[in-house]
Structures are given as structure tokens and as C-alpha cells.
Amino acid sequence: xxxxxxxxxxxxxxxxxxxxxxxxxxxxxxxxxxxxxxxxxxxxxxxxxxxxxxxxxxxxxxxxxxxxxxxxxxxxxxxxxxxxxxxxxxxxxxxxxxxxxxxxxxxxxxxxxxxxxxxxxxxxxxxxxxxxxxxxxxxxxxxxxxxxxxxxxxxxxxxxxxxxxxxxxxxxxxxxxxxxxxxxxxxxxxxxxxxxxxxxxxxxxxxxxxxxxxxxxxxxxxxxxxxxxxxxxxxxxxxxxxxxxxxxxxxxxxxxxxxxxxxxxxxxxx
Length: 270
Hints:
Blueprint lengths: L20 E8 L13 E10 L3 H15 L4 E2 L2 E2 L4 H6 L11 H14 L3 E8 H7 L6 H20 L3 E6 L3 H17 L6 H4 L2 E7 L11 H19 L4 H6 L14 E4 L6
Parallel strand pairs: 1-6, 5-8, 6-7
Antiparallel strand pairs: 1-2, 2-5, 3-4
């Protein structure tokens, strides 16, 4: 992969083995600090780290489930996407009138439990952020930089390289974010030096589906499904069945605090 990713937001199409790891990141909550309320007080980001050697098996297993429960893995002429909100609310492709939802859900959770990946997650209490800083960093960036730093350290420890894939939010937002991230990768952050950060060899932006709606990006779907469960753990201390199935995958488990999971809040002052 060339360095064109540094200039404009670029879509990641497939893993070609050039680098060792991929970190797929999804968000839960509203990143703005403007007029927020207690219902959207918390914001979190979760990254699912996948070894390139495990990538194809993850896609294959996920597609097997899709093809089993939806003809050609499609619904309303679009590729079925495992989206946490639709899955939990049993709407759209997940309507129990359309599929055998209990059996599908059982198979999906079993797949996630058995799949080989590592989790990094960070959550921010906006009350804490606004009380501590007169001019706080943007919430999205504050949460993301933790994941970038931990990912870079992880790669450094293994002597490996990797890329990051974020869910695309919009051309302007993605461009601004890319312009903010690139200098950190090239010159380091306040806590991680440039040599370590430079192990990240690309930052890409993907939507949930391709432009023609016929294909999806399963790794981002995995990050979406897991991200919601980590969000509930961080902000409400709720441990769902899915959370319990993936908890051991959080980096540095069982000592995850500050390593694979970071909570920026009143009960965890920084």
C-alpha cells in the first residue's frame, strides 16, 4: 500500500499481507460536547485488532452465517450487515418474522466467542472532561488517541507493523481527522515516541457497505457489535452475555485497566 492514504481519506479494500495487523475502530455515543445531556454523557471507541493471518477465516465464518439465514447474504437487495442497534432491536434484516433469530443469534455469539482477535477500548465521561479542562480536546480525538497509542505500543512489543481502519463519517470530518492523525504517527504523541508510532503504516476510512451496497466490511461489523457491549460496561458497568464472552480478549486481561480498557471519568481520574 502506497502512502497515498496520508493525503486523502482512503478506503481499505482488502488485506494483502504487506503488514501484520489490522485495527478496526468503531464508536458508540455522540462525540460532541455542545448541549449534551445525561443521556449522551458518555462516548466510547472500541478497536478490534486482527492478525492478518486470521482475517480470511473471520470473514469466511461471518459470511457462512449470513448465507445460512439470508438468501445470498442479502436483505432488501443490500448486503446484510451485523449492526448492533438493528441486531438488538430485532429490526430490518433481524426481524424474527424473517429469520430464526434465536438460532442465528446463538451462532453469531458462538462465532464471536471463538474468533481470534484482541480488543482495545476507551470511554470518556463528558462531565469529567469539561470539568477538568477549560478547552478540552474534541471527544472523538481524546478517545481515539488512546487507541492509537496502545496499538502502537502493542506493535512495538511484537516488532510488527499494522494499519488502522475507522468507520467513515463524512468527507470533511474524515479529512480533518486524517490531517490530525498523520503528524502523530510521523512524530509521535506526548506519551509514545515517533519510532513506535511509525509502526502504524496506514489509516483508512470505510463505510459499513460498499457504494453499490452489495458487499460489506465484516471487521467493522465485529467492532460495531462489540463496541456497544464495551460501552455499556464502561459507562453503566453492565456486563451482557456478549461482553462476558469477549472480556478475556481485552488486551492484557485480566489486568485490563489502563491497558486494553481506559475509562476517563470521575472515578478514574487522570
